[in-house]
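Newbie here. two chains, one complex. Structure please?
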Amino acid sequence: DVVLTQTPSTLSATIGQSVSISCRSSQSLLDSAGNTYLYWYLQRPGQSPQLLIYLVSNLGSGVPNRFSGSGSGTDFTLKISGVEAEDLGVYYCMQATHAPWTFGGGTKLELK
Amino acid sequence: QVTLKESGPGILQPSQTLSLTCTFSGFSLSTYGMGVGWIRQPSGKGLEWLANIWWDDDKYYNPSLKNRLTISKDTSNNQAFLKITNVDTADTATYYCARILWAHFDYWGQGVMVTVSS
């Protein structure tokens, strides 16, 4: 199975600060057709996960543009340019290039 | 508006079969490219993908659960189902269903808590 390693596991930030979360894959997520099936989700406390980024760098519907995704191959990054209070929660990366689909262990974003 | 809602037994005993239902609206599982997946999350822990079913009735399972999973759908009633046989305490979790648009979960249900206890 593909292992997704997220760092850091916990991130403390102040409102307005820019932060980044890394997701490193044990295998390349580029498939033979040139697609990279890497996604980012946010799970706010007590809620179900919501889609932030699809296919590495595309913003999900209704997601603010302070969120951005980048990366290729095995290394991916989610950046939040100016944290807001509603951004607190646990962030997960997920890959769907290789079966079985797998999630990273999560990065908890909390207020400093 | 896409919505999904999970339902289940709440609590069951070890060795029993867990039956979950996902009732959805705002899309059809007969539409090309659509699917529904099941994901679970033990309390305070991460997410684990379990199974997917697609518009053409293709099914995919997480091999870590071996042959314990069965996913199915009722397209006319906008429902998807998941059965897990021979449950034990390690299956205690919140179970989510989610819509799959091509290769990702774009809408999630609120989740249903399932406890396995004797």
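Moderator note: Chain A touches chain B through 23 residues (CB under 8 Å). The first strand of chain A starts at residue 4 and ends at 7. Thread marked as resolved.
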